[in-house]
Amino acid sequence: MNKRAIAVVLVIAVLVIASAAVAMLYLNNGGSKGDTAGAISIVDDRGKTVNLTAAPERIVCLGSAFTEIAFDLDAKSRVVAVDSSSAWLLSDGDNITNLGATSSLSVEPVMALDPDLLVIWNFNMYSEKIAQLEAAGINVAAFYPKNVPTILETIKVMGEAIGEKDKALEMVSDMQDRIDAVVEKTASLTDSERPKIYLELMSKGGQTVGNGTMSNDLINMAGGVNVFNNGTGNWKASTESIVGKNPDIIVIENQSTKTNDDLKSSIGPTVTAVSGDKIYRIDGTTLTTSPRVVDALEQMAKWFHPELFA
């Protein structure tokens, strides 16, 4: 083979290798711009992969926790609609549609907004609604964080979904630092050093909390022990059971119509929290799956252990 033939062969070989390299890059980057893999891909709490071609410009948040996360990640300008539970987060002049209660929401008003992404609670009662929204071609991300670690994970995943991954990671890192600062002081407390806590939620119709709930996690991390940690989920505790548990401290959501005097008169002066005047009211909007859940933790820690968190 002469030198010219060898040169031709070499050129062809280089072109083949280059073409293969381009093809590999193409495949690894998800193919063409219109490919379903998209520029953003997350997995929600259903275990479903949600693919977006770009950071969403029109976001619908059905749940105040998700609205608060979006706002805190500086994506408010891209939120076009929320549900009624998010109304308190809106200001006069906000060009954001209030869609009303999620439970009674139909697909048509959502479709009219032409959203790129809709974020909703992954409740069983919403499963049919989610299916209808997706059948209409709407990208849906559903979440249901039930404790502090999954709240942090939800913020990270939602942040990535709305194109604010770096801000979400920074937010979660800050939240974790604040959580660690509390737990470092409470982790070594003995059982006798932990006050007994009764927590009542206005947002759950006056129900208390048991194991497997975010509020139970907060009580433990703040250095207390939930008097109803022998149960699971939420339920309405009877007056007799509260008196029998004799909590040292009572925490009630401030939005409750029940006053401290109402509580005192219903459970009586024999309960330590009543005789010691240790009934505290907490902002119910902090007891949710939003960045402000750390505010609730820090507030509880100060009530439970003022000597540690002066």
Blueprint (SSEs and pairs):
Layout: H1 3-28, E1 40-43, E2 49-52, E3 59-62, H2 64-72, E4 79-82, E5 97-98, H3 107-112, E6 117-121, H4 127-135, E7 140-143, H5 148-161, H6 165-186, E8 196-200, E9 208-209, H7 214-221, E10 225-226, E11 234-235, H8 239-245, E12 249-253, H9 260-267, H10 272-275, E13 279-282, H11 293-304
Parallel strand pairs: 3-4, 3-6, 4-5, 6-7, 8-10, 8-12, 12-13
Antiparallel strand pairs: 1-2, 9-11
Helix pairs in contact: 5-6, 6-11
Walk me through the structure:
40% of the residues lie in helices and 15% in strands. Strands 5-4-3-6-7 form a five-stranded parallel β-sheet, sandwiched between helices. A four-stranded parallel β-sheet has the order 10-8-12-13. The chain has a two-stranded antiparallel ribbon with strand order 1-2. The chain has two domains: 132 residues, 3-Layer(aba) Sandwich (Rossmann fold), CATH 3.40.50.1980; 116 residues, 3-Layer(aba) Sandwich (Rossmann fold), CATH 3.40.50.1980. It contains eleven helices and 13 strands. With 310 residues, it is α/β, with parallel strands linked by helices.
Quick recap of the structure?
With 310 residues, this protein is an alpha/beta fold. Helix content is 40%, strand content 15%.
